[in-house]
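Reply to dn_fold:

You asked what the input looked like. This is it:
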Amino acid sequence: MKPLRRKKTIEITDNPITGQDRILNVTDETDILSDEGSIDSSGLHRRFFLDCGCIAAAFGRCFKCGAISCQVHHGICHKCQMPICLQCSTFQDTTNQTKKRYCGRCYDIITRKQKLKKIGRFFLSAFIQMDSQNGR
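and this is what came back:
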């Protein structure tokens, strides 16, 4: 049987690292005239893995590496609000048992500030008595 119509749909996105197109989804549809005279449609839908390893729908792209991830593995930096993937994220524990997600640049800035604050407290501790609760 010869197909009456074939339809192929490809969902692509650009890869900022390589500059080439990247295939996310491929859908093939074929309409065939059967022996009884009816038009039979058949289709095939292929979904490719995202960079996070999931088959779920694409949710966002990392601003640092360009990886495409699902809603579960995608997030934003707590400081600069830029979208980042799980691989580029660094998590920092807070006092109330939650974790904050940071990009590498913001995490370096925060840890640098914390280290400088500790060094400043060390040198000023000889002259000023500091409370451990409020840092004064």
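The longest helix spans residues 104-124.
Hope that clears it up.
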